[in-house]
């Protein structure tokens, strides 16, 4: 499916595979003119096409930028510009080796460089392999042909299956023998309602399976309610940076990437802390204060409690039982109580 681009230097389309949609782009960025304009258009196209999909991207082309990050012997200003663009769009070069992708004789001088890149999103990196410069192929250009392979075979993950038990014949025979005895005992029990009988049958089967059959490691993961789009985006940037560091051969550039990685990790830790606090408070706001915290408040007010069981304020001074009870209400029910003391007790 073709995609519309606002630059004549970019061609793009979407390809449907068993792993979902993949955005494929081909770009030419001249050495001098229109570089910023084309990079802006490419960034807009990538972000627009991945706004609703799983961000599976392949970006190929002549970027006219040299960098040791993708195997060139040096890094120039254009290369740094391309590096920044790739990091901003979470793309990782899959170029392998140091064979030049461009070779031409100009004014009697042989020029060689690696300016042609094949970049993929982090979720396609493990599926991309066998990247090669075809120096023996015949082309009408001063750039060599490039090939690489992408595996798109569908694989089950922890999020794809609710399978709990392994299907081992021996285990299932043990299950059948023991379950038969348990279910017979349930059947011989005193007559009861259909609901109770169904619950007993279910419990007997589940207990037998837990005892006789090995569990599968691939079970559906629980939803992370506090994880927001900002944290997801930061995690992807961290993964992209880690891969960039692993393939970067320039020590100075690698140190710069590691410094940025440390900053991003600190930033994501801060966002996680805030997201967890917000998620918990949003949950407690939905609770009925009179049924949940008022009994705790009454207990603290009317019971004789020792000081160590009370809460502390921002100066680590113990509060009275009454103030501790009010603090619980004021902290967890910010919308319906007047805040008298500000303290994060999570």
Describe the structure.
- This protein has 346 residues and is α+β, with helices and mostly antiparallel strands.
- It has 4 domains: 2-154, Endonuclease/exonuclease/phosphatase (Deoxyribonuclease I, Chain A); 169-212, no CATH class; 229-237 and 243-274; 289-332, no CATH class.
- The chain is built from 10 helices and 10 strands.
- The strands form 3 sheets. A 6-stranded mixed β-sheet has the order 1-2-3-4-8-5. A two-stranded antiparallel sheet has the order 6-7.
- Helix 4 (169-187) runs antiparallel to helix 5 (194-212), helix 6 (229-247) packs antiparallel against helix 7 (251-285) and helix 9 (294-302) packs antiparallel against helix 10 (321-332).
- It is extended and about 100 Å long.
- It starts with a strand and ends in a 14-residue tail after the last helix.
Which key features would you list for this structure?
alpha+beta, 4 domains, two-stranded antiparallel sheet
Q: Beta fraction of the residues?
A: 15-25%
| Tally of domains | 4
**Computed Rg:** 30 Å
CATH superfamily of the largest domain: Endonuclease/exonuclease/phosphatase
End-to-end CA span: 50 Å
Task: Tally the helices.
Answer: 10
Mean residue pLDDT: 77
CATH topology of the largest domain: Deoxyribonuclease I, Chain A
Largest sheet: 6 strands, mixed
Q: SSE order in H/E notation? A: EEEHEHEEEEHEEHHHHHHH
Q: Which outline best applies?
A: extended
Tally the beta strands.
10
CATH architecture call of the largest domain:
4-Layer Sandwich
CATH class of the largest domain, please?
Answer: Alpha Beta
């Amino acid at each position: 499916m073709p995609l519309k681009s606002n630059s004549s230097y970019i061609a793009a389309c979407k390809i449907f595979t068993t792993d979902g949609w993949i955005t494929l782009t081909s770009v030419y960025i001249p050495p001098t003119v229109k570089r910023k304009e084309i990079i802006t258009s490419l960034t807009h196209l990538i972000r627009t096409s991945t706004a609703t999909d799983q961000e599976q991207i392949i970006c190929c082309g002549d970027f006219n930028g040299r960098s040791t990050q993708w195997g060139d012997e040096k890094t120039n200003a254009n290369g740094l510009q391309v590096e920044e663009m790739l990091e901003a769009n979470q793309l990782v070069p899959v170029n392998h080796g140091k064979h030049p992708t461009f070779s031409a004789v100009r004014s009697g001088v042989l020029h060689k460089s690696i300016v042609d890149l094949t970049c993929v999103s982090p979720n396609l990196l493990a599926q991309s392999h066998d990247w090669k410069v075809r120096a023996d192929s015949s082309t009408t250009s001063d750039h060599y042909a490039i090939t690489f392979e992408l595996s798109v075979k569908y694989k089950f993950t922890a999020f794809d299956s609710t399978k709990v038990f392994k299907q081992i014949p021996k285990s299932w025979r043990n299950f059948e023998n023991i379950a038969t005895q348990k279910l017979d005992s349930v059947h011989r029990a005193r007559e009861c309602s259909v609901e109770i009988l169904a619950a007993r049958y279910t419990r007997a089967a589940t207990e037998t399976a837990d005892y006789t059959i090995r569990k599968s490691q691939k079970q559906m993961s629980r939803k992370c309610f506090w994880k927001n789009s900002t944290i997801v985006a930061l995690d992807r940037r961290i993964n992209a940076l880690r891969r960039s560091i692993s393939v970067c051969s320039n020590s100075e550039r690698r140190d710069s990437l590691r410094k940025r990685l440390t900053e991003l990790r600190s930033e994501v830790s801060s966002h996680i802390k805030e997201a967890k606090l917000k998620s918990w408070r949003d949950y407690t706001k939905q609770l009925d204060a009179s049924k949940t915290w008022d009994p705790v408040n009454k207990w603290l007010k009317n019971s004789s409690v020792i000081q160590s069981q009370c809460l502390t304020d921002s100066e680590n001074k113990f509060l009275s039982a009454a103030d501790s009870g009010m603090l619980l209400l004021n902290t967890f029910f910010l919308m319906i109580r007047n805040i008298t003391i500000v303290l994060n007790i999570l």
